[in-house]
């Protein structure tokens, strides 16, 4: 498909079935984020696998940081190569399968410090597969949604994603963690009901990703050998970096998102650990909190998609970041579980809008002919310093003995990102692909 043909296709969109299938991929992936990264496995690791919660927080942060570095190195390269070969689905499939198999392997993580290294290695592999697949998935948004509905479809996908995370948590809680007796003869003495949630997630991701491969249109292949495509892709990536530098508006947005997105991702990664360590919540209670958070976050993501199309992506991101800073301060100062619950639910309403509208703004700013490459940069800037948030939270927690002080450092990330966004414009003219 030529650049002109892609522009025409982007204006029209791919139809309701393709939109639903594209959104369902977020439904699939969110099971991994909520169960493994945020609420269940992260909490299990800190409470039962690591020697103590503070050490577990530091180790988990280190693994998240290593993931971020690998993602930052891989994302723009694969995005550039995919622009040369054409289709995006094969890349999504390859990296999604890496996530599925690494997640399934977490079943083998017993409640003993000797299993910690294996657990962290599998989490790193799963994280990298998840995030690199997102490069190609995100780049499909304009082709699927059409120009007029970018904000709505992006918001719907985040909302559907939160629904997927919610339902996966419900199944994990009632089907495994709290089931009495545990299903399939699982032995609670060695945490098998909790560990089995990793198998649930692996199946969840694999099954609900299938509609994307069946019903979402993809660009045709260009008949290039992988080695040739790699050379051309890397050359194109270099041109993209030069092109991006010549677009100060785009660069300001990417740098701002790099900083505030690190704060968002770190909140996700440590939410369950914080609830368990600071307020003494059990894994079952953390899952209940996660279920409630996914309801409010999903409503926020879907609702703010309409606001994005009305007032613009940048304004939606700015409004949401201000709300996150105010409510995040309340969460950190919460003296009891009730205050923590109420303020955390309010806070989660604004997670989806920040991420959905950031993706929409990138889709508006990226030149059509360089969309995969630009979304590769979107991914790399989203992860370029993402080692900093987890490492800061993890090691400040270990140094001070307080998870509150560790998470308080994230307010700086939000404030700096918000300050940088002040001069970003919501759209720019199409920039031709340089030769």
Q: What report would you give on this structure?
A:
This protein has 435 residues and is mainly alpha-helical. It has one domain: Growth Hormone, Chain: A (Up-down Bundle). The protein has 20 helices and no strands. The protein has helices spanning 3-12, 16-39, 41-49, 53-85, 89-105, 116-139, 141-145, 150-177, 192-208, 210-215, 226-245, 248-279, 283-311, 313-333, 337-348, 351-365, 371-383, 388-400, 403-408, 410-420. α12 packs antiparallel against α16 (351-365).
Please give the alpha-carbon distance between the first and last residues. Answer: 19 Å
> What is the architecture at the second tier of CATH?
Up-down Bundle
Give the beta-strand count.
Answer: 0
What structural category characterises the helix and strand content?
mainly alpha
Tell me the radius of gyration.
21 Å
CATH level 3 topology: Growth Hormone, Chain: A
Fraction of residues in β-strands: under 5%
The largest sheet, given as strand count, sense and whether it forms a barrel, is: none
């Amino acid at each position: 498909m030529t650049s002109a043909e892609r522009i025409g296709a982007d204006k029209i969109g791919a139809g309701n079935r393709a939109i639903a299938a594209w959104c369902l991929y977020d439904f699939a992936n969110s099971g991994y984020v909520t169960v493994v990264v945020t609420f269940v496995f992260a909490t299990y690791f800190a409470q039962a696998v690591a020697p103590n919660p503070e050490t577990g927080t530091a180790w988990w942060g280190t693994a998240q940081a290593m993931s971020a570095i690998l993602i930052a190195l891989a994302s723009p390269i694969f995005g550039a190569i995919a622009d040369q070969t054409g289709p995006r689905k094969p890349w999504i499939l390859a990296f999604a399968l890496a996530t599925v198999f690494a997640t399934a392997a977490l079943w083998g993580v017993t409640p003993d410090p000797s299993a910690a290294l294996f657990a962290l290695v599998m989490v790193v592999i799963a994280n990298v597969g998840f995030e690199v697949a997102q490069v190609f998935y995100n780049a499909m948004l304009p082709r699927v949604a059409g120009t007029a509905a970018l904000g709505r479809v992006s918001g719907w996908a985040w909302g559907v994603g939160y629904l997927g995370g919610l339902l996966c948590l419900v199944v994990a809680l009632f089907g495994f963690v709290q089931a009495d007796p545990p299903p399939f003869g699982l032995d609670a003495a060695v945490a098998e009901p909790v560990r089995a949630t990793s198998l649930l997630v692996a199946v969840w991701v694999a099954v609900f990703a299938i509609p994307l491969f069946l019903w979402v249109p993809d660009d045709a292949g260009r008949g290039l050998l992988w080695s040739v495509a790699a050379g051309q892709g890397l050359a194109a990536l270099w041109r993209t970096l030069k092109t991006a530098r010549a677009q100060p508006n785009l660069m300001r947005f990417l740098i701002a998102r790099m900083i505030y997105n690190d704060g968002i991702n770190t909140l996700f990664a440590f939410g369950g650990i914080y609830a368990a360590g600071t307020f003494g919540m059990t894994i079952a209670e953390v899952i209940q909190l996660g279920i409630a958070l996914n309801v409010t976050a999903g409503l926020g993501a879907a609702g703010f998609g309409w606001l994005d199309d009305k007032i613009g992506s940048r304004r939606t991101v700015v409004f949401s970041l201000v709300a996150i800073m105010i409510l995040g301060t309340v969460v950190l100062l919460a003296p009891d579980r009730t205050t923590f619950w109420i303020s955390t639910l309010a806070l989660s309403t604004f997670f989806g809008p920040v991420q959905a509208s950031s993706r929409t703004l990138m889709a508006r700013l990226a030149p059509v002919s360089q969309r995969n490459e630009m979304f590769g940069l979107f991914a790399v800037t989203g992860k370029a310093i993402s080692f900093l948030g987890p490492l800061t939270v993890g090691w400040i927690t270990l140094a001070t003995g307080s998870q509150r002080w560790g998470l308080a450092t994230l307010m700086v990330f939000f404030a700096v990102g918000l300050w940088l966004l002040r001069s970003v414009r919501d759209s720019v003219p199409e920039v031709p692909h340089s030769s």
